[in-house]
Amino acid sequence: MAATPILDWRHPRVLGFTAEVQDADPCTDRTFLITAHQLIAARVRPVYALNERQSVSTTLALGRGSCSQRLALLEAVARGDGIATRVRGLLIDGRFWHPRFPRLRPLIPRQVVLAWPEFLLDDQWTAVSELYGELGALRAGGRFTNTGGETLFDAIARTAVDWDGGTCSSCDLSGHVLADLGCFAARDDLFDKHGQTLCLPARIPADLIMRRRTA
Questions:
Q1: Beta-strand (E) ranges in the chain?
Q2: DSSP code of residue 128
Q3: Strand partners, 172
């Protein structure tokens, strides 16, 4: 539950945001997280930013963030409310994003490091993909296509985002997983060990362009 350079939940800006969620008076940790997720979706515009190490206080200040940056904000708000978090590291085939960027396919990295959050709810680690319910029930929402304006951050409220192939063929994303990198106490640790998807010289110019492009 500690604050980290990315999950800087002790920053006044993040504490203020956390207090807004608490003011909604959610009755359980799960409803707190759902309220936080919905507020982030409403307040933080989805863009294709690439800096995985951006602090959540910066994301809030900008009012925009990538799927990963918005998930990091959800983790930070959880820690600010006393809910323990960790991330599961997944190495995803870059072709997973081809439908979203059909004209930029040659520029998409072959492998993408994904930090997938988990929260300690009722003494059990619960993946963010099951925040709104069990995957078996969520699969009725239809598969995530990775096209249009819906991001992984948004999709978890509607459908099963299934990285392990435990639901049905339409929601099974396990074929895009190249490796399970294990669990880490914070996303900072994941990126310390495995690095970001793009190296710094490539990431800076790409981020300057993509972080202003709405998802």
A1: 45-46, 64-65, 85-93, 111-121, 124-127, 177-184
A2: G
A3: 162
